[in-house]
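> tool_call: predict_assembly(chains=two)
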Amino acid sequence: MKSSVIFEKIAKAFMYLSIAIVFVMVASIIWTIFKRGFGCITWEMVSSLPGGGFYIGKEGGFLNATVGSLYIVLSSTLLGLIISVPIVFYLNVFLSQKSKRAYWTRLAFDVLYGIPSIVYGAFAFTIMIYMGLRTSLLGGIIVITLLIIPILVRSMDEVARNFPRDLLEASFSLGATRLETIGVVLRQIAPGIATATLLSIGRAIGDAAGVMFTAGFSDSIPTTLSQPAATLPLSIFFQLSAPQAEVQNRAYAAALVLTIIVLIISLAGRFITNRFSKHKLN
Amino acid sequence: MRNLFLKKFLKSDSNEPFTVNAKFKHPDKAEEINIKDFNLYIEDSHILKNINLTIPANKITCIIGPSGCGKSTLLKSINRLTDSIENVRKTGSILLGNDDLQNCTESELVELRRKIGLVPQRPTPLPMSIMNNVAYGCKIHGVKNVRQLRRTVRHYLKVVGLWDEVKDRLRSPAVRLSIGQQQRLCLARSLAVEPEYILADEATSALDPVSSRIVEDLFVKLKEQYSIVMVTHTLRQALRIADYVVFIYMGEIIEVGEAKEVFNNPKHELTKNYLQGTIS
């Protein structure tokens, strides 16, 4: 056999191996969570707030954490989109590809992208102490928003940069202003926005470090923005770090709920992305 | 609900006369484009040198010349798509009738660009349905009447001969059309805002021979009502359809004249060489 053919076979084998590793990992994580989670989950746990002895294995549930997580994730994703979509438009429609300002902005977002969430949390915590604020839902939302803006901007920007310039010219030559052209850009990059949103939801819902200092933890569902809020990752963390085996097992029930929420959001996102991309050029 | 509208729309009498959108002002007489002492620099290189040119109305003017000589830049200068290039500097003026395209305000530019349609090299359907592609231009210029929009769409799809091919799927994405159909859709889209000029930047180079023939024939048909400026690489195409020919070499206009004159009796040595294929 020719050496190039052998080389291709080896390369192919590596590709298959990598894919297999990923699949095995995903499957084993889901398997573990589902097996242990379904073993101990009860309707009471999903639908009620923690009772007095919840963290030592008595009655109650973690509805506070589920609702807190959803509050934080949904509002910070919305806020994040409101802030980052204009940034992406500014970078791609108003600034030219070689502009210095665009270069520095992108660099800044790359740096922000790499900052671990615990740093965001600690930073926000310092400011909150300085201003005399206590942990609150609002603090959590703000920190998570800051955390996901770089993710949103960079992943949307990547799509928007591949935006065909001809399409801009087509719109301009019909007499559209740059603001009106944004409608065209929006349709073209809609799948990119959907993907970016999914990525950031995934990051936001799984983040424990950022919200630990800022949103705090609470056994009740917050009714105002200034009350502390519980989150699922923190709930899992507290239960797993309990000494009793049954409480540790219950952490898997919370993990199961978290996993199901993420799965639902990604599948829904896929569906929406496919619907959006039917008009896309190329 | 939408489909119901569509059904009604399809059944409606196709012979009803098409009325021009009242939104769009038309001059009494076809206007010429006058380019005077036009220079264009990108950074330090002088791309277009002292262009003086009158583009006659209701004729097909072909701009020919070797690659990279500034043909497309000249074309794009006419509706100021060159604005988005970095470090671009321009002197001189380009007049459409009495309006100066180079020194107008942003809001005047929007109206002037409407008067000058563009058919791009590669078809670029907007990421919308076929119907909205044609209606888009009208919508941004403030035509809101749905019936008027539908009439416009139908009329211009008929003009470019696309109506019978797409009338059953006006709501489907424009990107699903074939390349040749997409190019005709782009033409319909430009025509829908009722321009006076059509700029075509190698509009047929990405098309198969049959589609490009259809587009060519369309141009010949359209010149009664529109003035067409096209950049082309295909000398045969210029020979087939051009009324006037502009030969550009290294950013300078070498020869301008009636197509027959230039092709049969080129006055300039460079033109002769280009037509014989010794320079390209």
